[in-house]
Structure formats: C-alpha cells, structure tokens
Design goal:
The complex is a heterodimer of chains A (about 150) and B (about 240). Chain A is mainly alpha-helical. Chain A has five helices and no strands. Classes of the chains: A mainly alpha (about 150), B alpha/beta (about 240). At the A-B interface, α1, α2 and α4 of A face α8 of B.
Chain lengths: ~150, ~240
C-alpha cells in the first residue's frame, strides 16, 4: 500500500485564504461595475473550486490519488488552478475576437456615415449654434454666401 | 409640436422576425393610431427591417446583434432623446399582444406607477410554457419578490409601459444580458413605482426561441449572481 502524504496545514490555510481573496476581488469588481457578470462567471467558478480544494484536504488527497500524485497533493491545486486559468484565457480570447470584429464594423459604418454627411452638406453647423441644419436651409445659406457647392 | 397629449412610442425589438413583424406593427397601429412605432432590428440578417418599413414603422438598424437588452435600450434612448412621455415595449416576435397594451398603459397614464409590467401569472394560469421554464420563472419571481420587498410574479416579461422617469433611468443604464429581471430590481431600488397587471401572451409564432435547456441553467446562474451582487450596490446611475 502506498503511503500518501497529507497536505501540510499551513499550505491549506494559505491556499484557502488566497482563493477566498480571489473570490472577494472578483465579487467587488462585479459590484463596482468594472467587470460584467458574463465574463466573471468563470472566475467565480475558478475561485470557488480552488477554495473547496484548498480547504478540504481530504478531498484534495483523494483527487491527487486519482491522478497519481503521491508526494505532494498541493501539486493538484496548481494543476487545477492552471487549467482553469487556461480556460479563462481561451474564453477571453474568443471575447476579444468578437469585440474586434464588432469594432471593425463600427469603424467602417462610422466612416461611411461621416462621408455621407460631408457629401450632403448636412455636416455644416449653423454659425453660432451647434445644431445641424436641414438641406434646404444649407443651400440658401450657401447661395447667399456665394460659395461653390461640391 | 402643437399637441398637449403625451407623445407615445412603441419600441419593438426584433431579431430575424421578417414574418411576424408586419403583423405586430399593424396591430400596434390598430391599437392606437397616434402611437409612434420604432422597430429596433438587432442585427437581423433577413428582411426584418424592410418588412418593418413597409408596414410603416421607423426602423433603427443596429450594426450587429447586441441582445435584447442592448436593442431595447436603443429604443429607450431613442424615446428619451426625442422627448417621448410614454414608452411601451412590444416584442417583434409576436408573443406580445398589442391590444393588451391598454391594460399596461393605464396605471402609468393614471400616474399610479412609473413602470407597469404585464404579467402572465397574476391570477390566470392559462399561459402554457415548458414546465422547467415555469419553475424557473416562479423561482426567480420568489427571489426578486424577496429582494425587492414587493410581490412580483413575472420577472421575465418584456411587455411594459414606462413613463418619462423610468425611461430616463433605462436610457442611461439598462442591464444587457437578461434585462427584465435585473430591470425590475433596478426600478424598485431606485424607488420607482412598479405595478404588475395581468395580460395574455401568445406562444412564439415563427422562428426559434433563443433559450434552450443548457442556456436556462447558465441564465439562472448569471441572473442569481447579478441579483446577489446587485444587493450590495449603491444606486448610482451613470451619466447618460
């Protein structure tokens, strides 16, 4: 029978505190609106799994046994943490890809819109106020100013 | 702008609803010819926008899909920026019945509420939906009722009427992913008056529902998280 080492208590406490800190930080980021829930769910799951595995040494030992890790069960904590972080990074890569695509669409639509505005003279502001003026008015004003129309 | 009557707008979010949208707009015009209708096409890739224009509605074409929250908020911003006093939401998929709007509009027009929500579950039990969805909705309603300290029964209903005050709140800040639930909590936390009125709704006529079983679980997790965290927020509304 193989003698499994137990996770040292100090390690367990430190890991639990660190994982709890992660959960609390993520929670606070959501609360203060700097992180949207849909992107935070994976982080919360990571944090919770790590808290459970850190605090529950028996469970960590069991899982370490399944994976063939005998000398140092906390190695499983690293592995799990790393795995989750990889998943989160992958997820964020897809989010960034989508945002990039949307950004391109916005840039193009904006540029085309500005071109249309410029071509139709509607982009000319009435002197003295910031409002846009209707086409008919712009035409009469231009004629009065005797400026060449494009 | 000579009329003294409150200007009314119907916001109709639609995503690939080219078959249903015409009927919805017609029914809205039948319900109230003075109602301005704006369809927000949420990045539709079919003929939704064209069909809506043919039916006589104004159309806002979003450049890509934002989801129901983003689309509806676009309509609310439009309403706010154009000075509307009363805004209703009626979805473009045909689930909402325009003639039922009278019930939802009444409390807001009477000044008894800032926002009125049409509920499928107040009193009547005739709305049929899958069992799991009903349980989910009931559970959510229970949770929101507890948080809000006010009894609510239908936390996923988008069939709503808003006065200018509620409109200002949502135009500035509207939850994007699953807005009806968080929106309800928001209004109550901001001390706006919310009432529910019983209404009838239809099953989806065309197209597919965007909620599958797996998404329901994800949905519940996200909403419960959002609700839980929302408990700890101060009620600061960001600049419009």
């Amino acid at each position: 029978m193989i003698l499994d080492s137990q996770t040292p208590l100090k390690v367990s406490i430190a890991a639990t505190i660190a994982s709890l800190a992660l959960v609390l930080v993520v929670f606070e980021l959501i609360r203060s609106r700097r992180l949207r829930e849909r992107y935070a769910l994976l982080w919360l799951l990571t944090g919770l799994v790590l808290v459970v595995l850190s605090a529950w040494r028996g469970g960590l030992n069991t899982i370490a046994g399944w994976l063939g890790v005998r000398g140092y069960p906390p190695a499983v904590l690293f592995a799990v943490g790393l795995l989750f972080v990889i998943v989160v990074l992958l997820h964020y890569s897809t989010v960034i890809s989508r945002l990039s695509d949307q950004n391109v669409i916005l840039a193009q639509r904006l540029a085309l819109l500005e071109t249309r505005l410029a071509e139709s003279e509607l982009g000319r502001a009435v002197p003295g106020d910031g409002a846009l003026e209707p086409v008919a008015q712009a035409r009469s004003r231009l004629e009065a100013e005797e400026l060449p129309r494009t | 702008m000579s009329s003294d009557a409150p200007r009314r707008l119907a916001v109709v979010p639609a995503y690939n609803e080219e078959r249903a949208i015409g009927g919805v707009i017609e029914a809205l015009h039948d319900f109230d010819p003075a109602l301005d209708v704006v369809v927000v096409s949420d990045g539709s890739v079919d003929g939704t926008a064209a069909a809506a224009e043919r039916a006589g509605a104004r159309v806002i074409r979003l450049p890509f899909n934002l989801g129901i929250g983003g689309a509806v908020q676009t309509g609310f911003r439009y309403g706010w920026e154009n000075g509307y006093e009363l805004v209703v939401r009626c979805d473009g998929d045909g689930q909402h019945v325009p003639s039922e709007l009278a019930k939802v509009v009444a409390p807001v027009v009477a000044g008894d509420a800032d926002i009125a929500v049409g509920s499928r579950f107040v009193g009547s039990d005739s709305y049929r939906s899958s069992a799991s969805r009903r349980v989910g909705i009931r559970l959510l309603a229970l949770i929101v009722s507890t948080i809000a300290r006010q009894k609510v029964t239908d936390t996923t209903s988008g069939f709503q009427a808003l006065n200018r005050r509620a409109l200002g709140l949502f135009a500035a800040d509207y939850p994007h992913d699953y807005p009806e639930v968080e929106g309800m909590v928001m209004t109550i936390k901001h001390r706006l008056r919310l009432v529910e009125v019983p209404v009838e709704m239809r099953e989806r006529e065309h197209g597919r529902s965007s909620i599958t079983a797996l998404r329901s679980i994800y949905y519940m997790a996200k909403v419960l998280t959002a609700l839980f965290v929302g408990l700890f927020r101060r009620n600061v509304v960001p600049e419009t």
